[in-house]
Amino acid sequence: MAVCVAVALSGCAGKDGADGAPGAQGPQGPTGVANITSVNYQISTSDWANVATNQWSATSGSQNPPTTDLVTAFYSLDNLSFFPLPQTNIFTTSDNLTFGYKTGSALTFFYTNTGSPAGSPTATVYINAFDIPPAVMKQNPGTNWNNYTSVRSIMNNQSQSVKTN
127-161 burial, b for 16+ CB within 10 Å, e for fewer? Predict the structure, then answer.
């Protein structure tokens, strides 16, 4: 009996053979895609609709956030340097730019300006919105999801790890 246990626990010794062919692709997980996706928006000055005194809104049109995951957005005035939303004091003191969305609907961007001069945004606003699945957040604990460089880096690493035949 002791000999059987010793053989079973020690396994076989010998040279490893070559790796076999890759197995078939597994089924998609229950939460869908486990990669960060992004959508870019360009909101020109004429895209803002005055919805109330000192308040304007613009929508993302047909480009909707795909899921109920974490959606985070960053704005830029030069399409190079991006800052997290919400943000204040962009064009003038006492202004505010934020966003909201409802699953299956377009992102809506909100601009409030009670400063001087009051008015809608005076330049094109570039938005980079990210949809971040829970699996990605779990795989990257401690990530600051309001840091554009961090989010973009994780997204770029995911796209580089995808292999094509």
Answer: bbbbbbbeebeeebeeeebeebeebbebbeeeeee
Enumerate the β-bridge partners of residue 139.
none
pLDDT for position 119:
87
On whether the CB atoms of residues 88 and 95 are closer than 8 A, the answer is: yes
Task: Return left, alpha or beta for 122; rule: phi > 0 is left, psi -120 to 50 is alpha, else beta.
Answer: alpha
Question: What residues does 111 pair with on adjacent strands?
Answer: 56, 97
75 contacts: CB under 8 Å, gap ≥ 6:
82, 83, 85, 87, 90, 97, 125, 126, 127
Q: How confident is the model at residue 83 (pLDDT cuts 50, 70, 90)?
A: very high
Residue 64 has a pLDDT of 59
| Predicted TM-score of the model (pTM) | 0.70
pLDDT surpasses 60 at 12: no
In which order are the strands placed within the sheet that holds 83-84?
Answer: 37-43, 125-132, 70-76, 83-84
